[in-house]
Design goal:
By secondary structure, the chain is of the alpha+beta class. It is built from 5 helices and 10 strands, in the order βααααβββββββαββ.
Length: 167
């Protein structure tokens, strides 16, 4: 794993343009509801402009700190925002930007945060996520590979169902 500092958005965009990121990997398997393989290819070859941010991404930036704070309290974990970019040592072109990571247990655990208004495609069983959309499972697996760790987690907040995690 290579850890690259990300001092600003311009640096992040430049790093991201050179890799298939965790949020893009589902397109390789035709499992992304937002991006096709063709669009991904065109983005990475510079033939399509990158979508810098959409409405959901903007909302997520504001909701993520609140979800992280609530998850720390509910699950008795320590989370911190990640401000570095990870790239794989073994798979050229594979990279990831983590939302957060759990720390304090001796191991850094990549932590993806999601929010949903209605929870479509998600199933909750108490404080655990029983089912998550495939694109998010691939995203977490991609982050685990880039972080070169044995585990990762996804924490989701839904207005209707509450907050749960897939450890």
């Amino acid at each position: 794993m290579v850890n690259l500092p990300v001092p600003d958005n311009e640096t992040w965009r430049a790093l991201r343009s050179k890799h298939i990121g965790a949020s893009e990997v589902a397109a390789l398997f035709n499992l992304s509801p937002w991006l096709t393989r063709w669009q991904l290819y065109m983005l990475k070859t510079g033939k399509l402009p990158d979508v810098l941010e959409n409405k959901s991404m903007t909302q997520g930036k504001f909701f993520e700190p609140a979800i992280a704070a609530y998850a720390q309290e509910k699950f008795s974990i320590q989370l911190r925002k990640v401000r570095r970019y990870l790239s794989s040592d073994t798979v050229p072109g594979m990279g990831a930007s983590l939302d957060y990571e759990e720390y304090g247990s001796g191991t850094l655990v990549p932590t993806e945060l999601k929010w949903s208004l209605f929870g479509d495609g998600w199933e909750w069983e108490g404080d655990d996520l029983a089912t998550i959309p495939d694109q998010y499972m691939l995203q977490v697996q991609h982050q685990i590979a880039c972080a070169d760790t044995a585990t990762g987690q996804l924490i989701a907040s839904c207005v209707v169902s509450g907050i749960a995690r897939l450890p």
